[in-house]
């Protein structure tokens, strides 16, 4: 089954492959958001465990799928070899830091908004917070497909597809994490679903842009991979983990994080 998928992705245009892969990650977000049609509320313990799982997947993907290949494909020895990864990682973190300061948004368990003051409704701000999560995820998948198209030996279709699967798995609870709070705020099931799935629409856009950028500027690949990793780590530490620590479910969230890390590590090593 996995081999068939790889063969198909190898036979099509890499930009189209990046689009399909990130549409898959969007679909799993929509699948998670669809839970709002069947449940009005989600147990807080379960939600914190799911968010912890999301964080674990993102951290594992940042290293196994992005940072490690970025370092491996860089030239030189010692400190010189790790400079592209270090610079890209820092730029990725600063990019999301900048967006975090400018873009008005509201985290799931927080009462105060972040970013520039805005008259926008809480529902819109909540969706924007999750959208912020999804930019580096789509970018990471697209950059890997772009690396394959550019003929970089360290980049493989199997690795890119594996990353897309991992991102898709953690997008499922993200979809729930957006739609359920919106439903609790009094929004209709249909509107809650529409807002929930729309938070991941940015992933195919970021994926295609990442693939195109790397194809035309091959030398930036190590920087681009590390950039996506830095952006994802920033999101985990600044947003995902604090969201899970607001109630008394810290142990559950931590175990969820460990589980997510193990799942993504196993996927990447076994399939990538």
Give the gist of this structure.
The chain is mainly α. The chain has helices spanning 2-11, 14-33, 44-73, 79-102, 122-149, 157-184, 189-198, 202-216, 221-244, 250-271.
List keywords for this structure.
272 residues; mainly alpha
Which runs of at least 5 residues are low in confidence (pLDDT < 50)? none
Percent of residues in β-strands = under 5%
- Indicate the structural class: mainly alpha
Number of discrete helical segments: 10
> Major sheet, described briefly?
none
Helix content, binned percent: over 70%
Mean pLDDT: 84
Could you state the order of secondary-structure elements as H and E?
HHHHHHHHHH
Tally of separate domains? 1
So what's the overall shape?
globular
Number of strands: 0
Q: Distance between the terminal alpha carbons, to the nearest Å?
A: 15 Å
- Computed CA radius of gyration, to the nearest angstrom: 18 Å
Notes on the structure:
With 272 residues, the protein is mainly alpha-helical. It is built from ten helices and no strands. The model has no long low-confidence stretch (mean pLDDT 84). Helix 2 packs antiparallel against helix 5 and helix 3 (44-73) packs antiparallel against helix 6. The chain has helices at 2-11, 14-33, 44-73, 79-102, 122-149, 157-184, 189-198, 202-216, 221-244, 250-271. The chain is globular. It has one domain. The chain is 78% helix and 0% strand. The longest helix has 30 residues, at 44-73.
